[in-house]
Specification:
Helix content is 43%, strand content 17%. By secondary structure, the protein is an alpha/beta fold. The chain is globular.
């Protein structure tokens, strides 16, 4: 039976027009005329039987249906492109793991170790895409995810990797020549916040038996790499796990004003959908990663 799917040309035109809310900019990217893009959008609207855009004097805006459809179509076109590039890269040979990762963890911890896995599995390619928030595997083409949080992700296997032990760090300029600062002095400084760890400072002060009224107040950053950069620019003081900023600590670009860490109640996990858990490439990657993380925990005193 023939699938009820619009033409690829219409979907590409719609995705670009929706992204820019402009038929003109979509036409420029597709190297088409604006009238050609308009015809593709009109054909798609006729196919769907509903309006995707509102035409105004200033241009076009998405309808509610158009906004919903654009989000779904964009993700699926990304998946088609990713699958196409994967097949082109491997000429259909070998296995590919599409891995959702937290960028700083992937850059500072996983990538320096990944070469060992790839050397032992030359037929496997590991592609990485940034994801800092939970998502539904059913809505993506990911095979697995590196995730920080709780293990309760429905329909998945969660493999424990490690917990965090964040410490306060700042620019050496912030110390003003002193060796360290008291916790009470740290509480009086601008507290840089990590968006996905909103209670981090409260937990750190709490582990010292302190209550600080403004412990959740301050500039928020989604990535630890952003947090580290802000701290190096002397914009405040940050809580960051040392293993993510070892280079900055070794070079003296960041310093610990008070040597006290707390062990987080949440952890890093490798999350694999149950329906993909027995894939040979994923099994190999899982076994390697769990073993490497266990070895790291012992060496770092996180066991």
């Amino acid at each position: 039976m023939r699938r009820k799917i619009p033409s690829t040309a219409a979907l590409l035109a719609f995705e670009l027009a929706a992204r820019h809310e402009s038929f003109t900019r979509a036409a420029d990217e597709l190297a088409l005329t604006q009238s050609a893009v308009c015809r593709q959008i009109a054909a798609l609207e006729d196919f769907l039987g509903l309006r995707l855009f509102r035409r105004t004097k200033r241009g076009v805006t998405l309808t509610e249906a158009g906004l919903s459809y654009s989000r779904q179509i964009s993700a699926r076109l990304d998946a088609v492109e990713r699958d196409t590039l994967s097949v082109m890269a491997h000429h259909g040979r070998g296995a590919t793991i599409e891995l959702a990762v937290m960028p700083t963890f992937a850059t500072r911890w996983l990538l320096p170790r990944l070469g060992d896995f790839l050397a032992g599995h030359p037929d496997v390619t590991v592609n990485m895409t940034n994801r800092t928030r939970p998502f539904l595997f059913a809505d993506t083409e990911f095979d697995a995810s590196l995730y920080f949080g709780d293990a309760g992700w429905p329909g998945t296997e969660a493999h424990f990797l490690m917990r965090e032990n964040p410490v306060p760090v700042c620019s050496p300029r912030r110390l003003g020549g002193r060796a360290e600062l008291a916790p009470e002095e740290i509480a009086a400084l601008p507290l840089l916040q990590q968006s996905t760890r909103p209670y981090a400072w409260r937990q750190w002060f709490g582990s010292l038996g302190m209550q600080v009224a403004h412990d959740m107040t301050g500039t928020r950053y989604e990535l630890f790499s952003m947090l580290a950069q802000a701290a190096m620019q002397d914009m405040g003081i940050a809580l960051i796990p040392p293993f993510l900023i070892q280079e900055e600590l070794d070079s003296g670009r960041l310093v610990m004003p008070f040597h006290h860490a707390y062990l987080s109640d949440k952890a890093y996990y490798l999350i694999i959908p149950e329906r993909k858990a027995e894939t040979a490439a994923l099994r190999g990657f899982r076994d390697w990663l769990v073993a490497v993380a266990a070895e790291y925990r012992v060496g770092a005193g996180l066991a």
